[in-house]
Amino acid sequence: MMHIPSEVYEKILVRLEVKDLLRFKCVCRCWADIISSSFFVHRQLEQSKEDPDQNHRRIFLIFPHVTIPYNSCDDKEDSKSNRISKKIPLPRQFSRDDLKIMGSCDGLICLLSKGYYVFLWNPSSRKVEELSQPSYGCANFYWFGRDSTIDGTNYKLIVGVSGDRFDDRRTNTLYVWSSNTNTDRSSYRWTEMGETVYISKVFEDRGTFLNGIVHWPTYEPNMPNRLDFVVSYDLSRCEIRRLHAPAVIQGGIVNSCYTLGVLDGRLCTICKPIKKFEIWMMKEYGRNESWVRMVRLKEFEPNLKLLRPICFLKNGELIADVDRRKLVRYNFVTKTVQIVKTHNNHPMSDVITYLESLISPRDIIQRPPPTTKSNQKDLRQLIGNLRTIRLAPRNKR
C-alpha cells in the first residue's frame, strides 16, 4: 500500500462537507476519533472560514425553516429560486410559533424560544443545548458571538431587557452570558451590567458586530423631531456608547427605519430618507461627521420600508432581506434586483447566515481545553493508525 503522509489525510478531510464527515465517523473507531478530535474540529472550522469559494457558507431562514447555500444564490435562472432551498428539521425543544434568531457564530445559531428559553443549535450536526435559565424578563435586543479580545474562544450572549418607561423612553438593562475566566476551567454564567440604556425603539433586535463592538439601530422622539442614534457595546471594556446616525435620517418620518451592516470593514447603514434606499458608511469610526453616502439603490420598489443586508456573495452581489417578506440579491454593476426566496408571511420571519462546522454546543457550554500542539500531535498519531486499517472484502454470493 502506498505511503500517504498524515498531513495529506488531514488536508483532505478538513475540506469535506460536514454531512460527509459525520457519515465517515461510522466507518471505524479510528475515523470517528480523528473527526471528533478537538484539533480537527477547529481546523475544519478555520478551513471553512478561509474557503474563497464559500462552499461551507449557508443562509438559514426561519418561517419557513430552510437553508440555502451561498453558491446557489447566484443562479442566473430565477425559475430555480424556489428549488435551491432545503428544508431543515427543527429540534423538538423549539417552539413552532414563537422563535427568534439571536445570533450566529462558528456554525452555531442562538435561538430564543417562547421569549424565554435560549438554545445553541448546530444545524449541520443537528445538536442542540439549552443555556442556563437567566433571571431577566422580556428580551428587547440581543447579540450572540465570540469575543476574540480575550482568548479567541470566549463566546458571549448579550441581552437587553426592557424595564420602566420614563418620558417616552424605556429603561433597558444589559445581561451578558459569558465565561467566568477567574476559574481554572471556565464556566459560563449570566452577569447583570450596572449601566442602564434609555431607548424608545430598536429597529433591529439582533446586533451588528464590528471590531469587538456590537451595534443596534435605535431612535428617541425629540419633539418636534426625532433623534436617531446607534447604541454600541464594547465587549472588552464593557462600555455602552451612543453614535449618531447619518444626518439625512435625523428628524425624518416617524415610521421610517434604518438597518446596520459592515462594508469594507466599516460600519454602514441602509436607510430610506425620501423614496429610495441609500447606503451610508462611517468612514472614521466614532466620528459622527464622517458619515458618507456611498450609493443610492433606485431599483427597489418605492413602497418598501426595510432593507436588511445579509451577506455578500463571492461575485460581489448583495443578499438582502426586504421587509421580512423576501430574500433578494442585488447586483451593483447591472443595477438589477432578483428574488432568491420568499418567506411564508409569518410575523416572526427572519434570516441569518451560518458556517457549516463540527462545533458542538455542549463543548461550548462546558468549555473544553483549547487546542494545542499536543492535540495536533495526537491527531497525527490517529491519522497514522489509518495505515494499519484493512477493510475486509465483502463475501461474494
Automatic annotation (TrEMBL):
Residues 1-45 form the F-box domain. It holds the Pfam family FBA_1. It comes from the Eukaryota. NCBIfam families: F_box_assoc_1. This is F-box domain-containing protein. It comes from Cinchona calisaya.
